[in-house]
Amino acid sequence: MSILFSPAQIGKLELRNHLVMTPMHLGYSLNGEVNDQLIEFYRARARGGVGLIIIGGCGIDRIGNAFGMIQLDDERYIPGLRQLVDAVHAGGAKIVPQLYQAGRYAHPALTGKPSVAPSPIASKLTGQTPEELTEEKIQEIIASFVKAAIIAQKAEFDGVEIIASAGYLISQFLSPVTNQRKDRYGGDLEARMTFGLEVVEAVRKAVGPDYPMIVRVAGNDFVPGSNTNSESRAFCQALEKAGVNALNVTGGWHETQVPQLTMNVPPGTYTYLAYGIKQAVSIPVIACNRINSPELAESILEEGLADFVGMARPLLADPDLPNKGKSGQSDRIRPCIGCNQGCLDNIFRLKPVSCLVNAEAGREFEHGSIGQSVDRQQILVVGAGCAGMEFARVASLRGHKVTIWEESGEAGGQLALAAAPPERQDFLYFRNYLVNACRELGVTIHYNIKATPETILSAVQNGEFERVVIATGARPITPSIKITEGVKVLQAWDVLLGREKTGRNVVIVGGGAVGVDTALLLAKAGTLNSDTLRFLMEQQAETDQELHQLLTRGTKKITVLEMAKGIGRDIGASTRWSMLADLKRHKVNCLDKHTVLEIHPDGVLVECSNDNTQKVIPADTVVLAIGSRSENELYNALQDKLEKISIIGDAAKPRKVLDAIHEAYSEGIK
Ligand code: SF4
Predict the structure, then answer these.
(1) Potential cystine with 130: which of 104, 176, 181, 296 (Cβ 3.0-4.6 Å)?
(2) What ipTM was reported for this prediction?
């Protein structure tokens, strides 16, 4: 890694490397103050080797802040802020806060006050119409930015970042969609830039010429009628003239319909936005969004697409990513898989951020590092799914000797299932991480071994094991629907894992996550893959319209039936909208509030609960995706016979991967 881990500079700020932890909304402070949870979270990231940490967002006032953020609007916060700064400095990193004002994205139900914006245009995030800012109120907000910057300086932060992206207040002024003012703050692009530039100029004046200042900009709003990279370049040039030292280039607004952070976004996709800005300015540019490995970061810097690389979620997943990358141990990095289940989905539910792959994230203040157990044991884990392997990993770190018996020929369990649909292979990266981590820690995994109550009892009685953990997972449910001969009826798990093939006319029973995954897998069969698309585009072999058709027109007709209201209700908010859009693009027929009455030779007889009408949906294959039930027979047979036996993961109760991992971690550190 020749560039990524070499020393770097932003203005007069010297950094140990070119890796920036971009701001993340964590939801860890409920009273605006820095606390131990926040300090230990960032201390771990600083120790992990990142060069610069941007703390985000930090409220500059009480009308534009959000749930769970620290505040920079009062000097009484300075002692706590200093503790945070000291902790990060002790780890060798530099630290700046992001000055945050959400404008119309602020939720009045949380702030207790009406939100404000350049124009009274309802927010797509909150559904609320903000109050139009008067010129006097605009000056008050500029003064709040200034006050926050001075507090940051007094707290000995190494600089400040101002957010002018993501659809927050400054970007609302920049956009013709949300700024329809007739005064000097509205009109053409130059006028719309006025507010952002006044904020930057006022902050610069207050903090002095040398205090590092970064602005986070949208490389493209990805909102119809709003700014693109072209307008953003003009704004960035003006920011450079106003004394900004670096530009942190992200993607679009929160309300965009263009996915930016979901697993289906190829890593590094949005680097071109940073490169567009870099070509227009001479100050450093930070590229971010779905850059999740040191190798990708290095290639971006080598190609000259950006001057710094920003990562947030990858450092939530593994705080030691920089040190591991620097020491040539990238294969030991616990990968962020873009699932959003612990981070963004939690924030949408007003819960503190956690991480699917890293149960320690946000709990550093509780556990510190995993310590050695005083009572080292020989442990048998039955099942090498994600819960079994995570338990084995953590228990091994505690000093226990762990053996896993796995019935099938490979490890991973539900992770392999989750990774089956197109563009979901990141789940396998996590599976691979767990397998490697177990191997390195000396966990022995025996494959193709069927555990029975007798074999387990015998092994315990022979002294091979002192403790048994059952992690046997779950199996799919078969419903009690009348099924007549003639239609192929399959389980979704078998289809996802490629063990069974469907016909051309498929009805999927069950519209939860597994049903949606199966529908997308089948709907995409026969469509263009990315290599073919690129080839055809380069050769100009087809029209754009035909290429679009070929991308979305598969070979199968798919219907999803769901008894309740809504499809994909168990998918997290950050991902669900994009999967539903994908179903629509691929013309999957989604019918909620439809109960299956019978599967017979012509297809599926259903009843709609809206009007109680019945109809037959033709099908040559019916795929069942109606849930799973625990594989707990071993536990039930042994719980009274063994003193030290426990059950974890789906074997205890079917659950999300995140819950299975976190529970396994907690069991492992006991
Ligand atoms: Fe990445 Fe998922 Fe963890 Fe979020 S919860 S940091 S997306 S692995």
Answers:
(1) 104
(2) 1.00
